[in-house]
Design brief:
Number of strands: 13
Structural class: alpha/beta
Helix content: 25-40%
CATH superfamily of the largest domain: NAD(P)-binding Rossmann-like Domain
Distance between the termini: 21 Å
Shape: globular
Strand order of the largest sheet: 8-7-6-9-10-11-12
Largest sheet: 7 strands, parallel
Number of helices: 12
CATH class of the largest domain: Alpha Beta
Length: 332
């Protein structure tokens, strides 16, 4: 029986995580995030389960290893928050959830796209004040327009399938074309052409050095003035300061962001009684055509259950000395 401590566990997530580990393991669920200030709380736990907002840099990993931790079980697909090189040096095994319900994120991306296009948030705010005017609420049909999909993996493919149902022209950009997307009618083009021709741009690539700020000032300049931009992947894909400047210039019809580059320590917390010190985030909130949500695209019962069950499977593989597709750093 292994002793496991899980960090950044949300209240709705905890029952599903406990069910997944209901095979005799000792699981402790904590809401607090794992970082250099909290790493000492993992002392004595062989396995640490981390969330995407935890910070597992070299300092934290060294503290975990010194406390007896042997495995990091990341409860997300992304792992840019984990120093894998340091984990290898310390002999720490690291595993992730390589995929979960792609429909959760793809459907939420479309939720944002439709909401900003049809001014839903503004409309609801008005009607709650019994203001039923339509001034400023005009949107556009997506049917017949062009959707540009940056990243055509499982989530991008699910997004493309929905776009196809709307009757949109589909452009895709990826290092390796996906035959499933090609069968849907996706035309693969270079990134610049996709940005120039798309009415709707949705980001579904992982955050890597080569994709960091893939939407920067130059990319925003290529986009149509009335385009809609959606990001449900990773905040670092967009240069937020450049996005603010584009919006100040009255460019882009709508922006939907479920992620933000500096979201750590803000998203998943109640900051309503505090002064917002992040000037860029505060400025983004002031634009009426921008909708920001708190990294909830993945947050469906189906997806969270899959994440919990996969994490439990990764732990079982580690204890049995097995490796698999989810293993980022194998055991020594």
């Amino acid at each position: 029986m292994a002793e496991i401590v899980a960090y950044g566990v949300l209240k709705d997530e905890q029952p599903l995580l406990e069910q997944a580990f209901a095979d005799g393991h000792l699981l402790r669920c904590l809401e607090l995030l794992l970082n250099s200030d909290t790493a000492a709380t993992a002392a004595g736990y062989e396995i640490v389960s981390s969330s995407v907002n935890d910070v597992l840099d070299a300092r934290v990993l060294r503290a975990l290893a010194a406390g007896g931790t042997r495995m990091i079980a990341q409860r997300s697909t992304g792992y840019n928050n984990v120093d894998l090189d340091e984990a290898r040096r310390l002999g720490l095994t690291v595993a992730r959830v390589s995929w979960y319900s792609p429909y959760s994120v793809a459907e939420f991306a479309w939720t944002l796209a439709l909401a900003v296009n049809r001014r839903v948030v503004r409309a609801v705010g008005r009607t709650r004040e019994f203001d039923f005017r339509l001034n400023g609420l005009m949107g556009r049909d997506f049917h017949g327009r062009t959707a540009g999909i940056l990243g055509t993996g499982k989530i991008g493919t699910a997004f493309a399938r929905i776009a196809s149902g709307y009757g949109m022209r589909l452009l895709g950009w990826d290092a390796v074309p996906n035959p499933e997307c090609a069968a849907l009618g996706v035309e693969y083009v270079d990134r610049d052409r996709l940005l120039v021709e798309s009415d709707l741009v949705s980001l579904h690539v992982p955050l890597l050095p080569e994709t960091h700020h893939i939407i920067d000032a130059a990319a925003l300049d290529l986009m149509r003035d009335d385009a809609v931009l959606i990001n449900t992947s990773r905040g670092g894909l967009i240069d937020a300061a450049a996005l603010v400047e584009a919006l100040r210039a009255d460019r882009l019809s709508g922006v939907g962001l479920d992620v933000y580059e500096e979201e750590a320590g803000v998203f998943f917390f109640d900051r309503s009684l505090e002064v917002m010190t992040d000037d860029t985030l505060a400025r983004l909130m002031t634009f009426r055509n921008v909708l920001i949500t708190s990294h909830q695209a993945y947050f469906t019962e189906d997806a969270v259950r899959q994440i919990a069950e996969t994490t439990a499977g990764n732990v079982a593989d580690f204890l049995a000395g097995r490796t698999g597709d989810n293993t980022l750093v194998p055991p020594v």
